[in-house]
Amino acid sequence: MKKIFPFLFLICILLTACGAKAISTAGPTGTQSASKTPQTGSTNEAGSKLQVREEALKGLEITVWTPWYGIESTLFDSLVNEFNAKNDWGIKVAAQSQVNFTNIYETVTTSLPTSQRPDLVIALPEHALEWNDDGVVTDLTPYVGDPKYGIDTKDFPPAFWDQDINGNTRVAVPAQRTARFLLWNETWAGKLGFSSAPASAEDFQKQACGAHLSKTKDESTLDDFMGGWIVDTDPMTAYAWMLAFDGGVLEGDGYRFLRPGNIEAFKYLRGLSEASCAWEVKETKPVAAFANRDALFITASLEDLPGIAREFAAANNTDKWKVIPFPGKNDGAFVIYGSSYVILQSTDEEQLATWLFTRWLLENEQDARWVETTHRFPLRSSTMDLLGDYKKTHPQWAQAIDLLPQGELQPQKASWRTIKTMLGDGFDHMYRVNVPSGQVAAILAQMESLVRDLSQ
Question: Rounded to an integer, what distance in angstroms lies between the CA atom of residue 223 and that of residue 245?
């Protein structure tokens, strides 16, 4: 049989993933092999197990590299200024934007063997794991658990806090967390005869197909292909659907794509398209289609919700809509992801100063300001006490908070950086070439083959 899966995207990813990398490793924790000079004479501070005198923190300068621009960068700069003005140790923080996560990964990786590497990086967890393998990441375990300078880990939901653990090493702590969800038009579903959100794959199919059928019966013929779920090929969407069908990408210490749950998920999704119960947007944006009752379901990230509410208002649509997980065999699934604070190795004093700034960023007041600005999850459960008004005015965000116990982690592997790109490309390809539902296993087989090639 003629192969249905072209190798263009496979080759591109393979070349990217296999690019040569030359990074000299740092020395033991607390010593940077570049040129930062530790202060001498450190003794135990009373109440702390860290080998740093508090007076040694006075006037230390630390550098932070961020992936942000626009509103996030502006907020972070204001937080830096506030910390610099008010912290008890006289620590000075200098922030530098690297514009996006791709740039920050590349610039940090290049800087690692030099004396110009930053003290703190806001990066993706998989980036932190890779740098940890290079021996340049500070294990935050003693800082988190320190009697004087530590933090209450029980205040962080496990789906946030556990992402940055590698064996017995804490390579980072959460900076931002979000997720992709399905959005469901409750009002329109009620008019179609459905009284509750879909709790299973069968329910989802019935509602999506019911919405499509309603479009074929109206006066216009231009919308006959619309109505159900607008296909979204983001890697986190693909991964969530796989998990919803008891699939996934991990098996033991490695990856496995060709497994029954994944085949069932992809077959189910392609079947929705073949029945016109799922459709792909062409000129219309998914959010506009959702607000105009052209799609019963769309997929969106947590930070997208305020914009969707504004779209409904602009369309004079008073329909109620809800955030729901991806339905499958059990309770549904969704994947939590986001950036983390990564402290690179330097001196004991600079590492502690960097940790103190990081810990301050994680305090409730700063956490709440991040939520109100970026519309993502609060990192600490106790921060909800400061977000009562926000919760009232953002009901869909509040629904997402209630779903947190169902959230699942991304793979805790450095290789996830390239594997998730491959997953998204393969999922997108399945729709672009209209792979028949009976042949979706070929897509998963090609993914698995590529993973084996990358692992050699």
Answer: 30
